[in-house]
Amino acid sequence: MDVQEIDLGAVREQVDAVLEDFLTSRARVAAGRGHPIEVVNTVRDFLAAGGKRIRALLCVVGWHAAGGSEDRAAVLRVAASLELFVAFALIHDDIMDDSATRRGRPAVHRTLRARLGPSPRAERLGAGGALLVGNLALIWAQELLHTAALSVQRRRTVHALFDAMLEEVMYGQYLDVMGTGADDDIDAALQIVRYKTATATVERPLQLGAAVAGADDTTLGLFTELGLPLGEAFQIRDDLLDVFGSADGACAPGLGDLREGKHTVILARGLRAASAAQQRRLRHLVGRDDLDERGAGEVRAILEETGAREHTEHMITSRYEQVLRVLDASALPPAASRALHGLAVTATQYTS
Amino acid sequence: MDVQEIDLGAVREQVDAVLEDFLTSRARVAAGRGHPIEVVNTVRDFLAAGGKRIRALLCVVGWHAAGGSEDRAAVLRVAASLELFVAFALIHDDIMDDSATRRGRPAVHRTLRARLGPSPRAERLGAGGALLVGNLALIWAQELLHTAALSVQRRRTVHALFDAMLEEVMYGQYLDVMGTGADDDIDAALQIVRYKTATATVERPLQLGAAVAGADDTTLGLFTELGLPLGEAFQIRDDLLDVFGSADGACAPGLGDLREGKHTVILARGLRAASAAQQRRLRHLVGRDDLDERGAGEVRAILEETGAREHTEHMITSRYEQVLRVLDASALPPAASRALHGLAVTATQYTS
After folding, report:
1. What confidence score (pLDDT) does residue B348 get?
2. pTM of the model
3. Which residues of chain A have pLDDT under 50?
4. What whole-number distance in Å separates Cα of residue B58 and Cα of residue A31?
5. How far is B83 from chain A, CA to nearest CA, in Å?
6. Which of A138, A320, A336, B50 has the fewest CB atoms within 10 Å, counting from its CB?
7. What gap in Å lies between CA A347 and CA B108, rounded to an integer?
């Protein structure tokens, strides 16, 4: 059918231009009303610091896949909305985990804390300020969405999908935060991955783009089939990278998830496969705020020895293969199929 | 024109019924998808614990004032959306201030903290859980809003007003949290009142209801004229009640704002009118987490002696009179005018 490739680099630039235009308009309004313009700048800096824009790209690919040709401005707006939603979720996530950095810069609540200077209240107030910045990112995401030029019917579908995504992510995070499940429960860890990340990272963005193009339920269903394994693979890879870094050294192994005691699939698998002595060491080391490189090295060694790392790599591979099977069996336009294939490789192999 | 009064009691019941229906549907969906239904129940309990529903009532009165007659289901949905927005804002507010109680019950983050049991992480995780509950309240507020049955044009106006309100409140809270203004700056304190409360409590709810009825700019402008003095009076009264309680004893004087060191108008006025010795005492006592009844008594005495309390009462009265002048000069339907008059008395004299 089509011979042209989808130029993902160009899409990314267009999405960033929509974000920039929108934030410039928010800054202008804030300046006119005496509102604190630094909030807009904080969100702008957060977006400028990086991010793969994977959700925005998937949204536009979903639109192509569903035969989108008109409504390009609308789909770019929905795609940009997804990136503001990501900013909201990550800014709040970093508050909840008290993460020091994000995308190589201090996390927003840490930046605001530092701005308040040495005060016993700076920690609480910095977190409060970041909470509000995150809220505004969500409010703006919704504004971008409901000001997209869509017919009544498509607008309704887009909103329903977006609302479902927001609920899934919030519930997933809630389970993660308030969860009292066993730390060696792989299914529980996968459920959190599914709610918190898998649908929001791949399935919903693809569906949102497709809905802008007026896709039918078959296409939306195909994206569920595709989105779950790809989203899970993406998140499991992300968790592996956090602990082990990337083979090419672009991503250094870290202490973040281990200190936080995050209920990841690899950790659950490690605990499940470990000897009693190894289990005691893992439970002693993981979740300590003062875990050091040496302790992390010990954790990594146990995750290797128990085969947990290898097993988790297999989980990624089998999901990636599942994605390929679904893609091959689908009747998607070839350019969209190729773009999805490429994004699947990016999402499961690398990070940045 | 009309002889019938607006039955605010009935309106309140109808708004609560919309909220109950909506939350029941969210609970059903959550149960079906294995989502944590306790989040829905937490929001439901929060709403059931009380609240005057002043914003919802003003919204429906605004609709009446603008000649609303059809679209009753739509205006009730918008009114209910405002109450979910309030729940969101208060749940987050209580996290930021680490308030112990709200509406006579433990604040949401305290309830969740207690549920986690004695753990060094319970404080952080409880705050995280409440953050997410608050986010869902906002997400649901937006869902109620964009699923209201409105024409394209009215929907656009309603969304624009709602977005403006959300921005104003977030910016106002941000200034409050991150603000470094002088503590005796009455104008700065009033500016925070204006952004954080005045518009969101009165002006925007009235305008939102009016917009559902397709009001023109004259009516929307009238509600700005009315909303600012009434909203300010409402918030200044709220601040006074927090420090001094109510004359009838229904509201006991508290330590909340004084311990938090909230930049209220009465405190700014007290500092401005105080002697150097009194200023030192105020600055020593206010903002201490360990402020006790005796210290609070000293603060109250200074606020009386300096005339700050009396001055602040005058500020409320002059705003109330301004509201009456605007109402008298307006051509609002008499029933709407009388309802607004009644709500103005409620908002500036009592609380619950």
Report:
1. 81
2. 0.91
3. 1-2, 351-352
4. 29
5. 17
6. B50
7. 37
